[in-house]
Design a protein that fits this description.
The complex is a heterodimer. Chain A is mainly α. Helices cover 48% and strands 6% of the residues of chain A. The model of chain A has no long low-confidence stretch (mean pLDDT 95). Helix content of chain B is 48%, strand content 10%. The chains are: A mainly alpha, B mainly alpha. At the A-B interface, strand 1, strand 4, helix 6, strand 5 and helix 9 of A face strand 1, strand 2, strand 3, strand 5 and helix 1 of B.
């Protein structure tokens, strides 16, 4: 096959050159602000909640109010004003350097795109729970699903959502269970299995589910795709970050968790002379 | 119905009381323990490094713990020049330019553009993935994997847009991006002996008939592998290497006398709202 002198087929990009086509919406100056089939100004402002519009903008589907309220409660779950939490600590450090609140919240939100906590864990957990639901449907028990996550027969299984850093268990789950109940949501297959796995993990390995293992299955049961959930929850930690930022920014610069030189434990090479290079 | 009756328990995890580093040693001033009198990078005094070393040499030291050989330093410096600017059509640069023309605070331009450059398509995530791919395969002949890659091409025929047969290798705008091929050839000529770059050049020969070749992240990844950097360093190093161009383009439009009209804001003939998005 020799295509050396053939022209490349660029039709796909040529159609998109210098033009934007959108199924999302847009502003007609002096006219309507179209938003997924609604007028932002006439149909949404003052009539829909912020979280309803967030879901609409991410998914293109206008949700019922109770689902948006559930999502708002879930955002509150991630609003701990504790400066020891990694993303919040970054907010505090931005505050003590007198960075802007926008820079601080962006930095804190970026920090939460983590493999250990925050929205960065969502896709991996969805892989696990959706695969587990398929396994369950094919006759695999929750015990067996947990066993499949063990590297060795005697090893503790490492399952995202059942290994909260710093603490075992999650005080937010009973609160979200109350919210779920009060809003009248039934428990779907993803969440039911998440609780079954919790029961096995607790009985066999003394580990409890954390909020990730509660909220993501709930959102899967509501019909959201993995990409939609990741996008909906992308700025989840913003409120907690801003709390910590605000306190640090209101205090004198560099006064937050000040460190002396000796507060860093240097374990590298001893002093040495720079050799002549070349 | 299972309930979370058990009390949440703090784990018995021992956290350090002081952060540990092997990189940087700060010697406190006699007069103020919060101020450093001397700094050493892996044992080398900062002021001595300033006198005796180039920027790429100290950059290499920071990430590898030892100063590079002359050949390694030249290779890194050449890589940094090669990718100093993704160019004004690259989405990361355009993000910087829109920040600039939108009069965004100039200290935000670089983090904005770096975030866009952090993507999995032609961005720093692809550099890390390409480093992992190359490290996994480059000790074996490319022919051992080309069969699988070409099978992947057949699957890709149904897709719209470009296709990457492996991280760092594929098509760009439906063809082979010429500059990365030239840059890879030049860099491959700079290092003696077998290298990830030369392995990549051999792989690309097999992909050329399918209009696939080196992509920028693949070239960057191969050089970083040859220089001994770990894949997890690749993503951030790529952002660092591209930063000067991103910032320069952003600043070019950030001046107080550059009007907001200096970047396109499409009219309604070129911003087409599809019927399903329009108010019904």
């Amino acid at each position: 096959m020799n295509r050396k002198h053939e022209k490349d087929d660029v039709a796909f990009w040529q159609e998109r050159r210098g033009i934007i086509r959108t199924r999302k919406g847009g502003w007609i100056p002096g006219g309507i602000v179209h938003n997924h089939g609604y007028s932002l100004v006439d149909d949404l402002i003052g009539k829909a909640s912020y979280f309803q519009v967030l879901i609409l903008n991410v998914t293109g589907r206008f949700p019922e109010r109770r689902l948006a309220d559930w999502l708002e409660a879930h955002f509150i779950c991630h609003s701990y004003p504790d400066a020891r939490i990694w993303c919040n600590h970054i907010g505090s450090l931005a505050g003590t350097m007198q960075a802007s609140p926008v820079a601080a919240s962006s930095a804190g939100v970026l920090a939460s795109d983590s493999r250990m906590y925050g929205p960065g864990t969502i896709l991996a957990f969805i892989d696990f729970i959706t695969d587990a639901v398929v396994k369950k449907r094919n006759g695999t028990s929750a015990e067996e699903i947990v066993r499949l996550c063990q590297r060795r027969p005697a090893a503790k299984p490492t399952i995202l959502g059942y290994a909260r850093p710093v603490a075992n268990g999650d005080e937010r789950i009973p609160a979200m269970e109350r919210v779920t109940r009060e809003l009248g949501f039934a428990r779907g297959k993803h969440l039911a299995l998440a609780f079954e796995i919790d029961e096995v993990m607790h009985r066999q390995h003394n580990e409890r589910m954390n909020l990730l293992a509660y909220s993501i299955p709930f959102l899967c049961d509501q019909g959201f795709s993995a990409k939609e959930i990741y996008r909906l929850l992308s700025v989840l930690v913003c409120s907690g970050v801003l709390a910590c930022y605000s306190e640090a920014a209101d205090n004198p610069p560099e006064s937050f968790f000040a460190l002396q030189c000796c507060d860093i434990d240097y374990q590298g090479p001893k002093p040495r002379e720079v050799p002549s290079l070349e | 119905m299972p309930k979370m009756k058990d009390k949440v328990q703090k784990r018995q995890v021992k956290f350090v009381s002081r952060s540990v580093t092997r990189i940087w040693d700060e010697q406190a001033s006699e007069h103020n323990p919060f101020l450093a009198e001397h700094c050493r990078c892996y044992g080398y005094d900062l002021l001595e490094l300033m006198r005796k070393c180039s920027f790429p040499e100290v950059l290499y030291l920071l990430f590898r713990g030892e100063l590079p050989t002359g050949e390694q330093a030249r290779l890194l410096e050449t890589l940094m020049i090669a990718f100093i600017n993704p160019g004004p059509r690259h989405p990361a640069t355009r993000a910087a330019m829109y920040a600039g023309v939108g009069k965004t605070n100039t200290s935000r331009i670089l983090p904005i553009a770096s975030s866009v450059l952090g993507g999995a398509h032609l961005g720093s995530e692809e550099v890390e993935a390409a480093m992992l791919f190359i490290k996994r395969h480059y000790r074996f002949a490319p022919s051992r994997i080309t069969g699988d890659l070409i099978d992947g091409l057949a699957e890709g025929e149904e897709r719209q847009g470009d296709f990457h047969v492996a991280p760092g290798f594929g098509s760009r705008f439906g063809g082979i991006d010429p500059l990365p091929q030239k840059i890879a050839a030049m860099l491959a000529g700079m290092s003696a002996g077998a290298s990830a770059l030369q392995w990549g050049c051999s792989l690309v020969e097999k992909l050329t008939p399918y209009k696939m070749g080196w992509l920028v992240p693949g070239v960057a990844a191969a050089v970083l592998v040859d220089l001994g950097f770990l894949p997890q360093a690749g993503a951030g190093l790529f952002q660092l290497i591209c930063s000067p161009g991103l910032l320069a383009h952003g600043l070019e439009l950030a001046g107080p006398y550059t009007p907001i009209t200096a970047m396109p804001f499409l009219d309604e003939d070129h911003y087409i709202i599809e019927p399903e998005a329009r108010k019904r």
